[in-house]
Design a protein that fits this description.
Layout: H1 2-8, H2 22-26, H3 33-60, H4 62-66, H5 75-78, H6 83-104, H7 106-124, H8 132-151, H9 158-183, H10 187-190, H11 199-221, H12 224-230, H13 239-255, H14 262-268, H15 270-288
Helix pairs in contact: 3-6, 3-7, 3-8, 6-7, 7-8, 8-9, 9-11, 9-13, 11-13, 13-15
Length: about 290
């Protein structure tokens, strides 16, 4: 039972919770052991919360998942993991995550509880409402960043929040574009909201968000805030990495069908992962070693 439960918890999706660590990096606190410890606890809390939500979502969608060519192999849909066990595990994960949140302080607990409430509402109702569904995904990423800031604590910059919201919206609509393309004529049986999206409209929206996200990040690297806080304009050298990552993701969502979600495809894409690693190195060198 442990293996199906681990698989249903989607540990590979925990990579999204790296957004929780963004305030630690951009607040120049990675040499602060206390801040590192709090950030690790915050990331753990969000990993447990996201796994609880995945389990809840799979319980709710079990019948639709059984009609999906890939999702039917998920532990709950396939019967490898019982619904009662999954429900109990989701409760334990959520309570443990909130207990960690309480230890990190009332502000972090509020953010963590808001993330859980948002995702429960998403799983039950909001995922069926076009554009609101992606808005929930975007807000979830924003809450990750706010949670990371509350855990240290620092005040997140408006630039960081703006870039996060735009990037998360881009990723969310990219996920819908990928699902719509892979589902084909079976979109209604796999996800209700897909019938309310059109491929051409999604493509135009993704291109607009890609340009807007990249432009906002480029403006941030040359902003008065970045110059004052980091003492350099060299963050501009990271813009090509961001541009490659954005348009590589756009290519993945419109071309590749080797995985259940674009997140899975990204993790398998060597060029994307190599670019991400290079971006991380560049950020550390520019912010900390200049």
């Amino acid at each position: 039972m442990a293996v199906p439960l681990l698989k249903a918890s989607r540990p590979h999706q925990w990579v999204k919770n790296l957004f929780v660590a963004a305030p630690l990096v951009f607040a120049r606190r990675i040499d602060d052991l206390g801040a590192i410890g709090h950030t690790l606890l915050a990331v753990t809390s969000f990993c447990l919360l996201s796994s609880a939500v995945y389990l809840l979502n799979d319980i709710i969608d079990v019948n639709k998942d059984r009609a999906h060519p890939v999702k039917r192999f998920r532990p709950i849909a396939s019967g490898a993991l019982g619904i009662k066990t999954a429900r109990t595990a989701a409760g334990v994960f959520a309570l443990t995550a909130l207990a960690i949140g309480a230890a990190l302080g009332p502000l972090f607990l509020l953010v963590a509880a808001s993330y859980l409430a948002l995702n429960v509402a998403y799983s039950l109702v909001l995922k069926r409402v076009a554009f609101v569904d992606v808005g929930c995904i975007s807000l979830g990423f924003l809450l990750r960043v706010l949670g990371g800031a509350a855990a240290i604590p620092v005040l997140p910059s408006g630039w960081l929040l703006a870039c996060t919201l735009l990037l998360a919206s881009f990723l969310g609509f990219g996920k819908r574009a990928h699902e719509l393309r892979v589902a084909g004529t079976e979109k209604a049986s796999q996800r209700d909201v897909l019938e309310k999206y059109g491929p051409q409209a999604l493509r135009r929206l993704l291109i607009a968000l890609a340009v807007l996200t990249l432009g906002t990040y480029a403006a941030y690297t040359q902003s008065a805030h970045a110059l004052t806080f980091f003492g350099t304009r060299n963050l501009a050298f990271t813009v090509p990495f961001v541009a490659f990552g954005i348009f590589r993701f756009l290519w993945i969502t419109t071309r590749k069908s080797d995985a259940e979600s674009p997140t899975d495809s990204m993790l398998r894409d060597r060029a994307f992962m190599a670019n991400l690693a290079a971006y991380a190195v560049a950020i550390v060198v520019i912010i900390y070693l200049q």
